[in-house]
Write the structure tokens for this entry.
Amino acid sequence: MATQEEVFKNLVSHCKEYGFVFPSSEIYDGLGAVYDYGQNGVELKNNIKQYWWAAMTKLHENIVGIDAAIFMHPTTWKASGHVDAFNDPLIDNRDSKKRYRADVLIEDQIAKYDEKIQKEVDKAHKRFGDSFDEQMFRQTNPRVLEHQQKRDALHERYSKAMNDNNLDELKQIILDEGIVCPISGTRNWTDVRQFNLMFSTEMGSTADGAMKIYLRPETAQGIFVNYLNVQKTGRMKVPFGIAQIGKAFRNEIVARQFVFRMREFEQMEMQFFVRPGEEMKWFEYWKQFRLKWHKALGLGDEKYRFHDHEKLAHYANAATDIEFLMPFGFKEVEGIHSRTNFDLSQHAKYSGKKIEYFDPELNTSYTPYVIETSIGVDRMFLSVMCSAYKEEQLEGGDTRVVLALPAVLAPVKACIMPLVKKDGLPEKAREVMNLLRFDFNIQYDEKDSIGKRYRRQDAIGTPFCITIDHDTLNDNCVTVRSRDTMQQVRIPIDELHEMIRKEVDMTNLLRKLI
């Protein structure tokens, strides 16, 4: 049985081999933590974005979309706090000359205690079999209790250091825990210091007249600076939301786990403007709605959980993450934050413009509070791929790699296959393809044996393979093979469109959210 780590490695190779994700600039040996989406990856990614956009703008008549520029006036980032406070705590190992995020080193150490506890539980499970009481074991086993005590003490100390922004304490924790550099194996650490994550560049034609500007580290500020434009031109009444999908950039030092943490990534964000005092009601609404959106895909309800933030941003009064069980543990894919009126107030202060909303029902003006939902497209892509990737043992000793993608997100909906390349079958197959290609993304494949062609389509997650054989010319029926069950049924050509539509129509998915 392959370990989770091996399966993840296989998935990364699979993504490259089947046109989902390529290392960027690979012919020049790549660029760290930057990736390109291939022909199948971009289709899957676009389907995820379409599902999110429709759930926001179609299902909520008070949410509209925008597409703001990546470049923004540099004062934007002063007002938002990114110039002064968008930092990671970094530490160098003097022997390997490698740089690490101090918080990640400590979080990895906490995870090691969790792994030790799990090992004890797994060993006991094997020993006692069906009569094993896991809860009782966790509460009474001396070794588990010892590991748990150390873990909790470390977690408490780490949380306090992060909340207090105490860099000396972060270094002390690393020393006390005996954390070594993964490369040199030594504890020869520098002090911890802050490092700003924003990429900067210059705008202007001459060196003297150039203005320092930044690549945006998030898409939210483009929404906030356009808040009044949208509100007035759309005659929007509070509560209302503005949605946006776009690229963001962070100079991550610890960029790893494939597309999970990258330097150039894509976000789907929605800022929802509400009356002051009503923010917690909407915070709860968006928590539940966003979780429902994820679960509707059928990737497994048990793979999701909420994780409330212990360390809140100074402007927030509530924050939670939706975490998904990746092969490397539960990880954040989406954040829901109650940002109070911080952003609009800051932009009003720095711009000198009045950014208030006149509420006709209350007959008063105020600066709206904001609930934010922010999801990483790339992380969502990865969570879908991780749950879809399967290495299956078949009867007769055969194996297959299959991507059991939700049909609505699959890059290719069906593949048309003439049984042989003669006797008028390719021509008939093209006819069938022309019936379907306007509504669905369809492939045509006539190369190799039918079995090999099935395997190729399984590997990219195509829900249906449609075979045209000699009988088709007489009875106008085709054989449809299902990806998940591998079962085959024969149906008339004129029923194909409706059969595929039923399975892949996004409307059916959206109806689950109402």
In short: The chain has three domains: 1-72+197-389, 87-194, 402-511. The mean pLDDT is 91. The first strand starts at residue 21 and ends at 23.
